[in-house]
């Protein structure tokens, strides 16, 4: 039984230049307690998928498909009903901890208002919970730091506060949108370790959005690879790394800079991301794919398979 | 915070002194004087008059006496053009008037301008937004010397609802039109400013975070968005408020309210050095105090500013 089931999700934006097809009929499930990665390069639609689950898409967005959660379609919920899901059942960690916190409000208040709202706690109890949450994300001296303002914390500490906000109601699912991208490498590792500890303690499901495959390798049970708003491959993380079955995934893995790489060169995938102003009629990766054949430029492959699912017309054996 | 305020007040003192010196010499540099007239006074009379006002002494001595009197006895000297009235009398009579209608004008500006701006921002790109923006632009370019006669035409002459001028001890009927005439264009400015900055704040990432918490829009507006959205309005209102409570020449003349705007213009015509200087000092002190209050308000809203005080 899945906790969240995204079916045929499509997100389009109307802009002055035309319609941006940001996410094109994406489907996936997340089981309770499961750690899933959503990987893809910048602009592939990762954040928009997370935002659509939270009902936080920009005003110029049009969504279709279904996002099932506890038997209800989140896309059709009323504002009030959706507000009862947010933070309480599904929480989100945003990409940039520097701007995600309200600079004019004490961090304690930003935490307490969540439990006051969803659990009806009074000021004193809420404060106790906020301190607990700050301690859970290992903010030293939480009792005193609770009355500080965001600018009095370092980036890493702020991201811890954002994480504390996400888990203060112990939601069943956390959407973590590049939780470490804005931080330096050592802090990144600490934050990922922290997320991992908290996740196993609360058994929360996590959708980890990232373009950093190194982060995925250590953390996620399953990985989903997005390209041009289209799901390319989903597989258990181990299998994905050991035997990537999609040309794009292969390119992505090869592009990861490797310390042991004698040449030390960055092997980026040649070409540029697809033009999202046109609706998808064929594989979005075809133009950059070394294995592409004529058919790839006219047919849109479906995502098929068992444990490993892939959207590619070419059989794995035929890939170079 | 307290230390900061004290420090600010202390730095105000030399600044005001410098202002006095500048204003003093600047006025004397201008051609003419309080006792020049079409038909020159006989030299003997002139000498007496100058002596009576201490103007026979060298300039720097006059300045010194002037400052000494202010510091020791809070005495701004006699008026040069109005016999038997001191500058203290003139200010004591006119300033409460401008302070009163200026204050109510500021209340009108804020109480109407801020909510209008908020409504327009919340109804972004709707009929109400366009209506508000249109009205705001219209009244911002609508000068008060057009608005005031128009109001008198309607409220006094046509409908007989409000008196067309006078002060009458500051009864509310006499305050309404001066306050509105003085404030309307600023009210429109505040509305537009509030609308713009609230729209910007509502688009910021931390508001998205607040939405992700499941807070209702009303709570988000009041608890998260309003304070930062009002910062530009605060900046705007500082000098406007000083301007309002120090009196508008036009309002005082048109509505015959008897505020210090009237005294200012009389003083300028008759080269009444002491009245002009006294008013300039009041203006300066008010600007200082209101800027200090503003900075403390900033600090109250923005913790980063608070830390830097
Ligand atoms: N409000 C909007 N109007 C128009 N286009 C938008 C809007 N929001 C997002 N997009 C477009 O949708 C596409 C997907 O954006 P998204 O934010 O999901 O990318 P991402 O995968 O999260 O990238 P990154 O790694 O840079 O965060 C992008 O091409 C972006 O330009
Ligand atoms: Mg993103």
TrEMBL record, chain A:
<dbReference type="GO" id="GO:0005886">
    <property type="term" value="C:plasma membrane"/>
</dbReference>
<keyword id="KW-0813">Transport</keyword>
<keyword id="KW-0547">Nucleotide-binding</keyword>
<keyword id="KW-1003">Cell membrane</keyword>
<dbReference type="InterPro" id="IPR027417">
    <property type="entry name" value="P-loop_NTPase"/>
</dbReference>
<dbReference type="GO" id="GO:0005524">
    <property type="term" value="F:ATP binding"/>
</dbReference>
<comment type="similarity">
    <text>Belongs to the ABC transporter superfamily.</text>
</comment>
<feature type="domain" description="ABC transporter">
    <location>
        <begin position="4"/>
        <end position="253"/>
    </location>
</feature>
<dbReference type="InterPro" id="IPR003593">
    <property type="entry name" value="AAA+_ATPase"/>
</dbReference>
<dbReference type="GO" id="GO:0055085">
    <property type="term" value="P:transmembrane transport"/>
</dbReference>
<dbReference type="GO" id="GO:0016887">
    <property type="term" value="F:ATP hydrolysis activity"/>
</dbReference>
<keyword id="KW-0067">ATP-binding</keyword>
<dbReference type="InterPro" id="IPR013563">
    <property type="entry name" value="Oligopep_ABC_C"/>
</dbReference>
<dbReference type="InterPro" id="IPR003439">
    <property type="entry name" value="ABC_transporter-like_ATP-bd"/>
</dbReference>
<dbReference type="Pfam" id="PF08352">
    <property type="entry name" value="oligo_HPY"/>
</dbReference>
<dbReference type="InterPro" id="IPR017871">
    <property type="entry name" value="ABC_transporter-like_CS"/>
</dbReference>
<dbReference type="GO" id="GO:0015833">
    <property type="term" value="P:peptide transport"/>
</dbReference>
<dbReference type="Pfam" id="PF00005">
    <property type="entry name" value="ABC_tran"/>
</dbReference>
<protein>
    <submittedName>
        <fullName>Oligopeptide transport ATP-binding protein OppD</fullName>
    </submittedName>
</protein>
<dbReference type="InterPro" id="IPR050388">
    <property type="entry name" value="ABC_Ni/Peptide_Import"/>
</dbReference>
<keyword id="KW-0472">Membrane</keyword>
Automatic annotation (TrEMBL), chain B:
<keyword id="KW-0472">Membrane</keyword>
<dbReference type="GO" id="GO:0055085">
    <property type="term" value="P:transmembrane transport"/>
</dbReference>
<dbReference type="InterPro" id="IPR000515">
    <property type="entry name" value="MetI-like"/>
</dbReference>
<dbReference type="InterPro" id="IPR035906">
    <property type="entry name" value="MetI-like_sf"/>
</dbReference>
<feature type="transmembrane region" description="Helical">
    <location>
        <begin position="172"/>
        <end position="191"/>
    </location>
</feature>
<keyword id="KW-1133">Transmembrane helix</keyword>
<protein>
    <submittedName>
        <fullName>Oligopeptide transport system permease protein OppB</fullName>
    </submittedName>
</protein>
<feature type="domain" description="ABC transmembrane type-1">
    <location>
        <begin position="95"/>
        <end position="294"/>
    </location>
</feature>
<keyword id="KW-1003">Cell membrane</keyword>
<dbReference type="Pfam" id="PF19300">
    <property type="entry name" value="BPD_transp_1_N"/>
</dbReference>
<feature type="transmembrane region" description="Helical">
    <location>
        <begin position="275"/>
        <end position="301"/>
    </location>
</feature>
<dbReference type="GO" id="GO:0005886">
    <property type="term" value="C:plasma membrane"/>
</dbReference>
<comment type="similarity">
    <text>Belongs to the binding-protein-dependent transport system permease family.</text>
</comment>
<feature type="transmembrane region" description="Helical">
    <location>
        <begin position="9"/>
        <end position="27"/>
    </location>
</feature>
<dbReference type="Pfam" id="PF00528">
    <property type="entry name" value="BPD_transp_1"/>
</dbReference>
<feature type="transmembrane region" description="Helical">
    <location>
        <begin position="233"/>
        <end position="255"/>
    </location>
</feature>
<keyword id="KW-0812">Transmembrane</keyword>
<feature type="transmembrane region" description="Helical">
    <location>
        <begin position="134"/>
        <end position="160"/>
    </location>
</feature>
<dbReference type="InterPro" id="IPR045621">
    <property type="entry name" value="BPD_transp_1_N"/>
</dbReference>
<feature type="transmembrane region" description="Helical">
    <location>
        <begin position="101"/>
        <end position="122"/>
    </location>
</feature>
<keyword id="KW-0813">Transport</keyword>
């Amino acid at each position: 039984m899945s906790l969240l089931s995204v079916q045929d999700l499509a997100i389009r934006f109307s802009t002055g230049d035309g319609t941006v097809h940001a996410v094109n009929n994406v489907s996936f499930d997340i089981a309770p307690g499961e750690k899933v990665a959503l990987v893809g390069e910048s602009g592939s639609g990762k954040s928009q998928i997370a935002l659509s689950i939270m009902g936080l898409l920009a005003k110029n967005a049009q969504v279709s498909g279904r996002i099932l959660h506890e038997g209800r379609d989140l896309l059709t919920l009323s504002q009030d009903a959706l507000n009862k899901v947010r933070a309480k059942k599904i929480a989100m960690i945003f990409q940039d901890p520097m701007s995600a916190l309200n600079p004019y409000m004490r961090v304690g208040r930003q935490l307490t208002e969540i439990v006051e709202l969803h659990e009806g706690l009074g000021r004193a109890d809420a404060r106790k919970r906020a301190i607990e949450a700050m301690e859970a994300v290992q903010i030293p001296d939480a009792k005193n730091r609770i009355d500080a303002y965001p600018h009095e914390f370092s980036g890493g500490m702020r991201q811890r506060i954002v994480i504390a906000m996400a888990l203060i109601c112990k939601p069943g699912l956390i959407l973590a949108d590049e939780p470490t991208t804005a931080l330096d490498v050592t802090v990144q590792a600490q934050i990922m370790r922290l997320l991992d500890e908290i996740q196993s303690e609360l058994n929360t499901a996590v959708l980890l959005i990232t373009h950093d495959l190194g982060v995925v390798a250590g953390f996620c049970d399953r990985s989903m690879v997005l390209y041009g708003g289209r799901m390319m491959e989903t597989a258990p993380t181990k299998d994905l790394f050991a035997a990537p079955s999609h040309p794009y995934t292969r390119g992505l893995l090869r592009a990861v800079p490797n310390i042991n790489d004698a040449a030390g060169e960055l092997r980026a995938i040649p070409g540029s991301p697809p033009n999202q102003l046109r609706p998808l009629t064929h594989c979005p990766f075809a133009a950059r794919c070394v294995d592409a054949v004529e058919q790839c430029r006219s047919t849109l492959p479906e995502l098929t398979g068992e444990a490993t699912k892939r959207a590619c017309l070419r059989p794995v054996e035929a890939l170079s | 915070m307290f230390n900061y305020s004290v420090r600010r007040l202390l730095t105000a003192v030399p600044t005001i002194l410098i202002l006095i010196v500048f204003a003093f010499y600047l006025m004397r540099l201008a051609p003419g004087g309080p006792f020049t007239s079409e038909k020159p006074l006989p030299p003997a009379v002139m000498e007496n008059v100058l002596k009576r006002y201490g103007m026979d002494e060298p300039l720097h001595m006059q300045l010194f006496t002037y400052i000494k009197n202010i510091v020791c006895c809070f005495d701004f000297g006699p008026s040069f053009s109005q016999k038997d009235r001191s500058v203290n009398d003139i200010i004591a009579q006119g300033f409460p008037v401008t302070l009163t209608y200026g204050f109510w004008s500021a209340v009108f500006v804020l109480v109407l301008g801020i909510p209008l701006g908020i409504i327009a921002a919340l109804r972004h790109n709707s009929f109400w937004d366009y209506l508000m923006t249109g009205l705001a632009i219209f009244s911002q370019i609508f000068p008060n010397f057009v608005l005031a006669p128009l109001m008198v035409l309607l409220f006094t002459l046509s409908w007989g609802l409000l008196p067309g001028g006078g002060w009458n001890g500051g009864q509310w009927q006499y305050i309404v039109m001066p306050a509105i005439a003085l404030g309307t264009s600023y009210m429109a400015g505040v509305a537009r400013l509030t609308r713009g900055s609230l729209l910007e704040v509502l688009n910021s990432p931390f508001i998205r975070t607040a939405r992700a918490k499941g807070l209702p829009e009303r709570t988000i507006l009041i608890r998260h968005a309003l304070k930062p959205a009002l910062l530009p309005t605060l900046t705007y209102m500082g000098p406007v408020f000083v301007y309002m409570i120090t009196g508008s020449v036009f309002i005082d003349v048109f509505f015959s309210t008897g505020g210090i705007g009237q005294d200012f213009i009389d003083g300028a015509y008759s080269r009444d050095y002491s009245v002009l200087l006294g008013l300039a000092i009041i203006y300066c002190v008010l600007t200082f105090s209101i800027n200090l209050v503003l900075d403390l308000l900033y600090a109250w809203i923005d913790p980063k500013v608070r830390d830097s005080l």
